């Protein structure tokens, strides 16, 4: 689908440009001018600590959704904030994605039976079984990765990584100890965070190369697209 056979590199360039512009739109959430650094940090923490609990709002909507609903146990609520709360700026959006990812990571520890599985909504009302692990881990890795990219919009490159690590590690610690009462829940959130940083660095490298030299990048895309050329 991405590589129509025989239609040459033009179609690939168009496809790449489209993909990159979508990725840039997703990750270039405005800082929101006029807000102080302290204000942005406060919103970053608030978003993270609030969204720690958002996936379990399916318990409130139990008439509509099964517990561990595929809708709330995903990055969808965070993405909704990204689309509809864009005016709030990058800080609360990236915080929200981190909080969600911590929750989903900790949920990975449950044996996937009964209510611990991920459930499709009505009219399907069926569970994903062992695929629940893949769903939770995939959403958590993407959530952390997207949050890391967006955090750079809010805070710039220098302090983003320390902020991501502090907020992720502290929400992981609080959620694991308070809600899950398990050290393993803390450790798995940190592990999933680390797993997200490598693909995030790779995507960030591609985005910055595309911004700095779109023409050069497009022509050398085939040589670079499958390689991890960015290490940090
Ligand atoms: Zn949950």
Question: What string gives the helices and strands in order?
Answer: HHHHHHHH
Shape: globular
Number of helices: 8
Helix content: 55-70%
Gyration radius over CA? 19 Å
- How far is the N terminus from the C terminus? 31 Å
Q: Let me know the number of strands.
A: 0
Which small compounds were modeled alongside the protein?
zinc ion
Structural class: mainly alpha
Total of domains: 1
Contiguous uncertain segments of 5+ residues: 215-232
What integer is the average pLDDT?
Answer: 83
Strand content: under 5%
Largest sheet: none
Topology:
Blueprint: H1 8-27, H2 37-51, H3 76-84, H4 90-107, H5 131-179, H6 183-212, H7 214-219, H8 221-224
Bound molecules: zinc ion.
Residues 55-56, 68, 73, 103, 107 line the site of zinc ion (ZN).
List its salient traits.
232 residues, 65% helix, binds zinc ion
């Amino acid at each position: 689908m991405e590589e129509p056979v025989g239609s040459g590199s033009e179609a690939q360039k168009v496809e790449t440009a489209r993909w990159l512009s979508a990725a840039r739109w997703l990750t270039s959430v405005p800082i929101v001018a006029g807000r102080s650094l302290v204000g942005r940090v406060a919103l970053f923490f608030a978003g993270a600590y609030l969204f720690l609990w958002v996936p379990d709002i399916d318990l409130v909507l139990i008439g509509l959704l099964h517990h561990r609903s595929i809708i709330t146990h995903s990055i969808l609520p965070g993405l909704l904030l990204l689309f509809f709360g864009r005016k709030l700026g990058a800080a609360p959006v990236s915080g929200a994605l981190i909080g969600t990812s911590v929750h989903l990571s900790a949920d990975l520890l449950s044996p996937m039976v009964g209510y611990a599985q991920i459930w499709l909504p009505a009219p399907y009302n069926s569970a994903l079984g062992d695929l629940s692990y893949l769903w939770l881990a995939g959403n958590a890795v993407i959530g952390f990765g997207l949050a890391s990219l967006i955090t750079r919009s809010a805070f710039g490159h220098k302090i983003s990584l320390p902020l991501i690590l502090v907020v992720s590690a502290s929400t992981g610690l609080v959620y694991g100890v308070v809600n899950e009462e398990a050290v393993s829940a803390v450790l798995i959130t940190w592990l999933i965070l680390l797993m997200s940083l490598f693909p995030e660095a790779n995507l960030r490298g591609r985005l910055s190369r595309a911004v700095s030299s779109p023409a050069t990048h497009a022509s050398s895309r085939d040589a670079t697209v499958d390689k991890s050329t960015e290490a940090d």
